[in-house]
Amino acid sequence: MKSESTVVKEKQKIKCIVWDLDNTVWDGVLLEDSNVTLRHGVVDIIKTLDERGILQSVASKNEHHAALEKLEEFGLKEYFIYPQINWNAKSSSMLAIAEAINIGKDTLAFVDDQPFEREEVQFALPEVLCIDANDLSQLLDMPQLHPTFITDDSKNRRKMYMYDIERKNVEENFVGTQEEFLASLNMKFTISKVGEGDLQRAEELTQRTHQLNTTGYTYDYDEIDALRKSDSHLLLISDLEDKYGTYGKIGLAIVEKGQAVWTIKLLLMSCRVMSRGVGTVMMNHIMHLAKEANVKLRAEFVVTDKNRMMYVTYKFAGFKEVQEDNDTVLFENDLSVMQPLPDYLTLTVKP
């Protein structure tokens, strides 16, 4: 059914690199000598990965407070989100990091100087890319750590996750219902047509977003540019912000516009907003546009091992299967029922 692009078959890019500390980030063992020194070149590597939009964390068998204090002393603490500094198996720490960030295990890399630790992670989590700390000089040249583009969202990715951590801390201590908490965020959701300045981020979204993704289709820069210039297609991108800061551009939709039928070829939303109750906003907007245009609305869906939630989202929105071929489903909605916009956010649609 897909004719405009291809489904990703090559290994995914790394979204988060997890560092051991002793004899990896620094030379020496902290519990044996508090005067450890940073490994040559490691600061530049960490900062370069951060600029590329690759998240970083820590999995270290160490005394938690002392290790964080040393990272603070070196000016590196801010670069690591959800650090796991404990005496658990490194594979357990890797799982905790993947769960906290809400990314797939196959998008993690692990750097450690000890063969035993790398083998333990590799055995328990074969999807994880394990890297010998002795190969640090080659790290930045690895293709898995080279994003196609470095967008504004890439450069701010760590900061946006830091905002998320702050939100989670507030939510854990919030007294009230989930809707009351969401209302307290003062969320602003914006939908606009994909412009030239959005092309790199749009490509990045198709390649990085796998859970809240209806088809898994990927499009490169030139394909998206051609589609946005096409009269027979509608390309929409969305961003979200709240009182804590921006989530960045977090949603993308590609709609094929026929004379009598519109077909949603791709609808995706960043997993970072999964708990924000905004997953249906873009879809509902497309439903309203289709109704105004007096056309049928269909949607392609390709089943993957990660996107079950998007299938459920379509079903709850009134889409019904009209065709099924192996893992590919064609949905249709008669547009008789439209879900209202959630009360806890403000929607702005830009022309």
Strand adjacency order, main sheet: 15-16-14-13-12-11-9-17
Could you report the average pLDDT, rounded to the nearest whole number?
92
What would you call the shape? elongated
Strand content: 25-35%
Q: Provide the domain count.
A: 2
Topology:
Blueprint: E1 6-7, E2 16-19, E3 26-27, E4 37-38, H1 42-51, E5 55-61, H2 64-73, E6 84-86, H3 90-101, E7 108-112, H4 115-124, E8 129-132, H5 152-155, H6 157-172, H7 178-184, E9 187-193, H8 199-208, E10 217-218, H9 221-228, E11 233-242, E12 245-257, E13 261-269, H10 281-292, E14 296-302, H11 308-316, E15 320-325, E16 328-333, E17 345-349
Parallel strand pairs: 2-5, 2-7, 5-6, 7-8, 9-17, 13-14
Antiparallel strand pairs: 1-10, 3-4, 9-11, 11-12, 12-13, 14-16, 15-16
Task: Give a verbal description of the structure.
This protein has 351 residues and is α/β, with parallel strands linked by helices. It folds into two domains: 16-145, Rossmann fold (3-Layer(aba) Sandwich), CATH 3.40.50.1000; 152-349, Aminopeptidase (3-Layer(aba) Sandwich). It contains eleven helices and 17 strands. It has helices spanning 42-51, 64-73, 90-101, 115-124, 152-155, 157-172, 178-184, 199-208, 221-228, 281-292, 308-316; strands at 6-7, 16-19, 26-27, 37-38, 55-61, 84-86, 108-112, 129-132, 187-193, 217-218, 233-242, 245-257, 261-269, 296-302, 320-325, 328-333, 345-349. The strands form four sheets. An eight-stranded mixed beta sheet has the order 15-16-14-13-12-11-9-17, with helices on both faces. The protein has a five-stranded parallel beta sheet with strand order 6-5-2-7-8, with helices on both faces. A hairpin with a 2-residue loop joins strand 11 and strand 12 (245-257). Helix 8 (199-208) crosses helix 9 (221-228).
